[in-house]
Amino acid sequence: MKEIRTRIAPSPTGMMHLGTARTAIYCWAVARHFGGKFLLRIEDTDQVRSTKEAVQVILDGMKWLNLDYDEGPIYQMDRLARYQEVVDQLLASGHAYYCYATPEELDEMREEQKRLGLKPRYDGRWRPENAKGKAIPEGVKPVIRFRNPDEGTVTWNDAVYGPITVANSELDDLIIMRNGIPTYNFAVVVDDWDMKVSHVIRGADHINNTPRQINIYNALGAEVPVFAHLPLICGPDGQKLSKRHGTVSVLEYEKQGYLPEAIFNYLARLGWGHGNMEKFSREELAKIFELADCSRASARIDWKKLDWLNQQYMKEADDARLAELVKPRIEAHGGSIEKGPDLAQVCALLKSRSATLEKLAESALFFYVDPKIDPAAAEAALASGGREALALFGEKLAALEEVTPENVYHCIQAVMTEREIPMKVLATPLRVLVCAADRTPQIDITLCLIGRDTVLERIRAALA
């Protein structure tokens, strides 16, 4: 069987979008499913917009999502000599030609076509048979155009959309090289041909490019790969995903506190399905993924579902790993890890209640900052028996031989029984005056994490 080779080929002109990340996941999954190779190629021929910083964003995004590639990164700008070699081949075979039309000429041509109600397109004025006898204008740098077939059709069996046919009469002679730099439609064919890419998996916005590229493959006598076009990702309103819908950059989700495995899982499920399976590991995806299971309909982002999925991964995550990820977030909020209990234990307590790492950090913050007590809240907490209950609890806590959640819970129960009070009469001053928090997780565990000495010190301060 022929080796399966897939690639992701982003342009380093900005952030790494969710759509690019999803395509990368699918390319990775196809390669891993068949035991093939997954390549990373950087399409950096747009020298105006391409930046080193954007390249780094791509590399960082791939690393964060744990998308390991077998070859690359390969940079198009390192391959200019190869593109020139193939252009020369097409010129020699009559499949390409020099075009000396100026931008002004082409603008006039399109305006006239619009006036006549025609589809704007290059009219082939510099095709060899049309350019006979024409003087080559001075000072005009020619571009090189691919000579598209005039008749017939281009048909391919798309792995997602099924058979697609386009008439060659709908296509004009596209530019394949300008000032020694290849254009997208040409460079991508040469790259995929040279790199023996078997499956070209990309967004549905590239469907219009595919017949042009197939004609170039045919002109080169190259094998045409399998094409699979993925419907675009839409916002909750069904419109194309954009900044107005919120975050569209993969690494922004890292900043917001999502786990990479949750984003990986969520994006993979966005437009693909395997029965009712919602949650799966990278290894499981590689085992079950099939392009045929991709939907032909656009997928809609569902932020609530993403939060739910991330929370499931948070619950299962190793506490020490969560602590490492949460520590800088707590410090960014002004907390000092040295001031509080073991962070891994705090994460174990709070993680099931937190949808993101950022929410976990916010929930844990009260363990790692000096308490700031609101005087009005303190007065209210100590009213109606709260002062007496808190004082009695302090006595019982101080008398414990061993401080465990179970023993602390018994102290709370004993105070409630002796004072004949409901839980909130004691729980409120404990939260407000000891924890300095509106809400806390299970109070007995929370007090154990804060530590007996600190709890007693805060009780004394509150009752002073």
From TrEMBL:
Residues reported to bind ATP: 243
GO MF entries: glutamate-tRNA ligase activity
Motif 'HIGH' region per UniProt: ranges: 10-20
Glutamyl/glutaminyl-tRNA synthetase class Ib catalytic domain mapped to chain residues: 3-308
UniProt main location, coarse: cytoplasm
InterPro entries given in the database record: aa-tRNA-synth_I_cd-bd, aa-tRNA-synth_I_codon-bd_sub2, aa-tRNA-synth_I_CS, aa_tRNA-synth_I_cd-bd_sf, Glu-tRNA-ligase_bac/mito, Glu/Gln-tRNA-synth, Glu/Gln-tRNA-synth_Ib_cat-dom, GluQ/Sye
Keyword Cytoplasm: yes
Catalytic activity, reaction form: tRNA(Glu) + L-glutamate + ATP = L-glutamyl-tRNA(Glu) + AMP + diphosphate
Keywords in alphabetical order: Aminoacyl-tRNA synthetase, ATP-binding, Cytoplasm, Ligase, Nucleotide-binding, Protein biosynthesis
Cell compartments where the protein resides: Cytoplasm
Ranges where the Aminoacyl-tRNA synthetase class I anticodon-binding domain occurs: 321-463
Keyword Protein biosynthesis recorded: yes
N-terminal signal peptide: none
Pfam families (UniProt xref): Anticodon_2, tRNA-synt_1c
Source taxon at top rank: Bacteria
Motif stretch ('KMSKS' region): 240-244
Protein family (similarity comment): Belongs to the class-I aminoacyl-tRNA synthetase family. Glutamate--tRNA ligase type 1 subfamily.
Assembly information from the UniProt record: Monomer.
HAMAP family membership: Glu_tRNA_synth_type1
Function statement: Catalyzes the attachment of glutamate to tRNA(Glu) in a two-step reaction: glutamate is first activated by ATP to form Glu-AMP and then transferred to the acceptor end of tRNA(Glu).
The protein's name: Glutamate--tRNA ligase
Record organism: Sutterella massiliensis
Gene field: gltX
